[in-house]
Amino acid sequence: MRLPLFALLVAAFGLSLGHVPSVAHAQDAAAAQADASVSMEIVVLHGTNDGTGIDSKIGKMPELAKPPFSSYNSYKLLDRSKQTSSKASPSTLKLPNDRVLQISLKDVVQPAKKGEPKRYVISASIQNPGGKTFLPLLEVNAKAGETFFVAGQNHKGGVLVIGIKVNP
Amino acid sequence: MTTKMMNGEAHETRTKRPPTDLELMMYVDGELEGERLREVRQALSRDSALRNKVAALSLSASIVRENAESAAAIDLTDGIMARIAADKSPTRDARDAAPALEAPSERKDAEVKPLLRPGLDKAAAKSTPSNDNSRGIFALAAVAVAAAAGLMIWGRMDVGTPHSQGAPVAAITTPAEPPAAPAPTTAEAARVADTDAQDGDTEPGVAVAAVDFGTKIGTIFYVPAEAATSNHTTTVVWLADDSAGGEQ
């Protein structure tokens, strides 16, 4: 009777070993997430009511014709830049009003269904030059390829509109 | 074994050690003998604590013996046979009638012996079937299989995708005014499918997970996309330097 028992134990151990690679895979995925980074395109617009219309350099941005952006009839592109952010190193961008936008990647969420894009948990904040915080925290869960806006800061008779697009 | 010392005295090389509890029990049971018996007696004569221990052991041994004898004196055989004889119900009579016809006559005088003797039932139960070992083996095997199954389930769990579900989710992440979403017609379905396949209908492309406007009051807008037939929205966080607003 001892031999079958031993065989059973060996078989059980073998079965468990058969799934060790999946655990290792999960650990690899976690390690990959730890050094994951995201590329973002950041546009800074200046919204005014000077009647000049929407700057052609901005490109296709239909949201500007809808509320709340439609409160201003003119938008001018002030800056367009690409930033890469990771958990370890947040990216910063100095805004035209001397405030500093800081963006960091908090997490990468794998899609629940196959074929869907990843989602990125991104944290943003805006600091005043004196150190006081203008926007303490904004954390979004963004699908790759989507743009979100942070707008409303006063600037030269108008407002600043910051568009952040998460590149796939 | 003895060795001759310089002063001419014989000295025993074996050291006298105090008697152990086991040796005391053997002493009480009369199983100790020889040199060790003599040493234990000497130790008892010297040490009153040992004498007390021996007295306690003797008392407990006598109690056990008395109980064992009284238990052995109980004979269940007579009681059981008396109950059987008293059970004269019709069912039992009918049940017993048929085999009685075919039973050989000498079986009437067959002696009925109890299966288990009182006081020995535990020992008998332990000594009866040899499949107690197999029971243990089956239990071990079941534990091993259960452990393997647990590891399999654990291995299949998605442990590598922690995300921010535990993060505080602001109530304002749900758009207060969701964009109108008329059901697409069949003709529109193909056109809408591409957009919906990428965007999904249930959640915005960018959902606000947490927001802290500090001392200011901000507003979160979900601006509908250009296509009115799509649920796609663009998230706008509006925070003015001197604004007062609310959730919209």
From TrEMBL, chain A:
<feature type="signal peptide">
    <location>
        <begin position="1"/>
        <end position="26"/>
    </location>
</feature>
<protein>
    <submittedName>
        <fullName>Uncharacterized protein</fullName>
    </submittedName>
</protein>
<keyword id="KW-0732">Signal</keyword>
UniProtKB/TrEMBL annotation, chain B:
<keyword id="KW-0472">Membrane</keyword>
<feature type="compositionally biased region" description="Basic and acidic residues">
    <location>
        <begin position="104"/>
        <end position="124"/>
    </location>
</feature>
<keyword id="KW-1133">Transmembrane helix</keyword>
<feature type="region of interest" description="Disordered">
    <location>
        <begin position="87"/>
        <end position="132"/>
    </location>
</feature>
<feature type="compositionally biased region" description="Basic and acidic residues">
    <location>
        <begin position="87"/>
        <end position="96"/>
    </location>
</feature>
<protein>
    <recommendedName>
        <fullName>Anti-sigma factor</fullName>
    </recommendedName>
</protein>
<dbReference type="InterPro" id="IPR036147">
    <property type="entry name" value="Anti-sigma_E_RseA_N_sf"/>
</dbReference>
<feature type="transmembrane region" description="Helical">
    <location>
        <begin position="136"/>
        <end position="155"/>
    </location>
</feature>
<keyword id="KW-0812">Transmembrane</keyword>
<dbReference type="GO" id="GO:0016989">
    <property type="term" value="F:sigma factor antagonist activity"/>
</dbReference>
